[in-house]
Amino acid sequence: VCYCESYYCIFSTIDCTRTWQQTYFDNDLTVGVTTVAVDSYDSKIVYIGTSRGEIIQSTDSGKSWRVLNRFDNNVRKIQLAPTDSRLIFVATESKGLFRSVDRGVTWESLQDKLKDFKDNRRFRDLFLSSTQPGFMILATKYGLLKSINNGDDWVALELITPESEATINSVITNPTNPQEMYYVTNTTFYGSVDGGVKWASKKLPTSRGGNILLSDPKEPTVLYLST
User: Fold this and answer.
1) Scanning 13, 94, 98, 174, which has its CA 20 to 30 A from the CA of 52?
2) Pick from 110, 81, 76, 112: which is nearest to 94 by CA?
3) Handedness of CA 25, 225, 183, 137 (dihedral sign)
4) Which tens digits make up the pLDDT trace of 87-105?
5) Nearest one of 61, 59, 93 to 77, comparing CA atoms
6) Residue 134 region, left (φ>0) first, then alpha (ψ -120 to 50), else beta?
7) In the sheet that 200-203 helps form, which strands lie side by side, from edge to edge?
8) Contacting residues for 90 by C-beta, under 8 A, at least 6 apart
9) How far apart are the first and last CA of the chain?
10) Rounded CA separation 182/175 (Å)
11) Alpha-carbon distance 67 to 50, whole Å?
12) ∠144-224-35 over CA atoms, to 5°?
């Protein structure tokens, strides 16, 4: 099953993208579908976030939907822990990061745990490791913040660019080695092989800003960049 988001609806395909069917539609055309996440243990369970601030869940591959929570702020990203899909993280545009340990029944704000970092509510990206449970990287207007215990404690990573100039759009790690990190800005690609102690940089091969980074789960040396 594959899901594709349009501005105000979701499409799904079960035949390798040969045909698509609409599985979610918002009656308010001013409301955008901003993010989609699928349970890795049960692909019938799907989560979407909206610009209205809702987390909406389907447990039947999009045939029916219910609102799990309203954050009253644009939902930018939903991430399910790869090793435990009961653990869900939601990043909002300007209200910060939230965590659920019971598949979205209850939610906890993590802002108190991020209070020592300025601009911590200004979300840019969120990455969860698939091989090291608890390891996550949060990209904010401040820069990169790392946690190894599912967001209970955070440390800032030292970057090449000054904090005020670090417009980080996407961050990932090698699927098999979280110490190997990558992030991209509007102009530059950065990589580290020692957990962010040292960084190497490379100018992007395009004049367009770097938007999303992905790594191939079977070939970790293969990276994909959208602009």
Assistant:
1) 13
2) 76
3) positive
4) 999 999 889 999 999 999 9
5) 93
6) left
7) 170-174, 177-184, 188-192, 200-203
8) 49, 55, 69, 71, 75, 77, 78, 79, 97, 98, 99, 100, 107
9) 25
10) 11
11) 11
12) 65
Percent of the chain that is helix, strand, coil (3-state, to 5)? 5, 45, 50
Q: What is the pLDDT of residue 137?
A: 95
Strand ranges inside 54-210, DSSP E:
54-58, 66-70, 75-81, 84-92, 97-100, 108-109, 123-128, 136-140, 144-147, 155-156, 170-174, 177-184, 188-192, 200-203
Q: What is the DSSP letter of 158?
A: P
Give me the pLDDT at residue 183, please. Answer: 95
Joined tokens for residue 24: 């979610």
Q: How far apart are CA 189 and CA 215, in angstroms?
A: 14
CB atoms inside a 10 Å sphere around CB 42: 11
Half-sphere exposure of 44 (CA within 13 A, CB side): 4
> 128-164: per-residue pLDDT in tens?
998 899 999 999 877 899 999 999 999 999 887 665 5
